[in-house]
């Protein structure tokens, strides 16, 4: 259902903000197509502003958040974590999961995805011990070479015991283990000494974190 103010459609049936029509304010100011009203704080008149874009980051590229120069309130999405909002005045420490600091403030996790919520919920009642499933992204490794897939393990420190085993798919050649590569844990595969690349047909991994 479209959202309207008077006879003016503010958000259309496709939720496409590009189709937002202009609305005249009491002061006579008028926005243009694609703009929205943006609060300027208590007691201050709202102003027209364009819809902020959301930058997407792969999980393995989340470190790029620390090199950005966003404005206050900017939005970003990190794969396997969720939506982040930039807070210019934040003093939240950087934990590589819910907060990423740059020179002027911090990206704070404001809307975690369901997998992240499940991981945090499992973390507390079990003394910090928990298990989760991870979709495999490794296709294989050449003999003697190592391939890595870094994953989000909330609360897992370098001193903790982290185990991994396949839960679906076929067999594989090579050695697979968990390794801490600061600031993240990674699935590591070492190819076996055979004449061909080590095939990895596993569709998911089960990872268990035991706090020490």
Task: Describe the protein in words.
This protein has one helix at 114-123; strands at 3-5, 8-11, 35-38, 47-50, 54-57, 75-78, 82-87, 99-101, 106-112, 130-135, 140-141, 146-151, 161-172, 175-181, 184-190, 198-210. With 212 residues, it is mainly beta. The strands form five sheets. Strands 5-6-7-9-8 form a five-stranded mixed beta sheet.
Largest sheet: 5 strands, mixed
Structural class assignment: mainly beta
Task: Count the E strands.
Answer: 16
Tell me the overall shape: elongated
List keywords for this structure.
212 residues, mainly beta, five-stranded mixed β-sheet, four-stranded antiparallel β-sheet, 43% strand, elongated
Q: What is this structure's SSE topology?
A:
Elements (H helix, E strand, L loop, with lengths): L2 E3 L2 E4 L23 E4 L8 E4 L3 E4 L17 E4 L3 E6 L11 E3 L4 E7 L1 H10 L6 E6 L4 E2 L4 E6 L9 E12 L2 E7 L2 E7 L7 E13 L2
Parallel strand pairs: 5-6
Antiparallel strand pairs: 1-2, 3-4, 6-7, 7-9, 8-9, 10-16, 11-16, 12-15, 13-16, 14-15
